Amino acid sequence: MFYKWLWYINAAVLALTLLVLIIGLAWLGDYDSDAAQGRRSTSAAPANGTSVNGASSYDASADSPLVAAVRLYSSRWEPPVGSLRLIIEPSEAVAEGAEWRAGKIAWQKSDATVRKLSVGTHNITFKPLPNWSSPKKLSVKIVRRQTTDQTAIYTRKAPPEYGSLTVTIEPEEALKAGGQWQVAGSGWQTSGVTFDKVPVGTQPIVLKALTGWISSAKPTVVITKDQIAAVTVVYAKRPPPPPPEFGSLTVTVIPAEAVKAGAKWRIKGNEEWQDSGATVSNIQVGSQVVEFKALAKPWTTPKVATAKITKEQNATVSGKYVKPKPPAPRFVLTGTIMGYDGGLAWIKLPKETKTTVFFAGEIIDQYYTLTKVSDGTAVVTRDGYEFPLKVSKTIPGKTPPSAATKKSKLPTRKKIPSRLPVRKRE
Fold first, then answer.
1. Helices (H) and strands (E) in the chain — how many of each?
2. Closest alpha carbon to 298 in 386, 385, 383, 387
3. Per-residue pLDDT reduced to its tens digit, 171-186
4. Looking at residue 395, what DSSP letter applies?
5. pLDDT tens profile 126-153
6. Which residues pair with 181 in a beta bridge?
7. 324 secondary structure, DSSP code
8. Which residue segments constitute the domains of the chain, with CATH numbers given?
9. Which of 118, 280, 281, 345 is most buried per CB count within 10 Å?
10. Residue 365 to residues 287, 338, 353, 373: CA-CA distances in angstroms?
């Protein structure tokens, strides 16, 4: 029985608590610090009836005990917001569209109240008007559950002041050629015309561009209120351009294999391709772009080059076509070098059982050319790349010396005449 009554008591306390919360939340929704009758401090109203900037005060002592208890209990759920009311002066500015806004909210009319602004500082901006100077940006502090009043004043701009201007154009030839002038958006005016409504102050005069003529300077004029300023502007004959100057250009293309494949060059803009080493005359002085003819794979065409042409001088430019580097030779060179002058060497290919004599310039293994022979080294080339290969000094037909006899002095080889007999080619 005791527990049953305890349950009833707890349920009643819970219901009372919910009732207090509902009353407090409803009071918060209906509460308006601007319209709460009889709850404002009478000291906030000035004697002359004009608005006073600042936060409206609130007299909490007028609340009933129940409302005070609800306010105390529900204050923790009350959102931290306040209101702002702003009056714009004078009325003429308001009539012409003066408005204000806090942050990024919509534009507000004068004497409008914006509610539920978060507590803290808000920046107030004003809509610009053509004939008015807008108030400076305001920083307004919003207080919780209070309405902050502010007043902002627009200032009428002074009306613009004007003077007049007369411009005379010289010489007569320029005037006949169509010489005209304008100032401050006046439109093109002829010589001797007086234009009114030129804004007071220093104004630049713009002269109309004429073929074969230039103005002596960029004239300006000082305009005084209700006065006529007079200025004379002078066109001058444009001097004829200097005669063109010329030079020449020679372009070399490498390697020779690319030249054989059809490598050529030309000055950009010209249609005719030139051979490597060709010289083109009568090229105008200045920078000229040289482009190279594209070849089929595997050749890579050089990028365009820039040639600086100087008067009566010959400029030179080179362009190198490139092939991908081929694989290194798979053969070896064995034998005795018979003479350096003729580039003669004994050459033995890996799969051959006999030796073969090659001269410098001959093709080895279909792709490689023997280009240079020196003491113990032969150089073969392919696609413009060089591959040095060592050549042993073993006498053909003899067994190489063993490791035990390497240090002993070998027989002196007979001197080979510098001029070797020409081998008959089959």
1. 5, 30
2. 383
3. 999 999 999 999 987 8
4. P
5. 999 999 999 999 999 999 989 999 999 9
6. 189, 207
7. P
8. 6-156 (no CATH), 162-237 (2.60.40.10), 246-320 (2.60.40.1120), 326-426 (no CATH)
9. 345
10. 46, 21, 15, 17
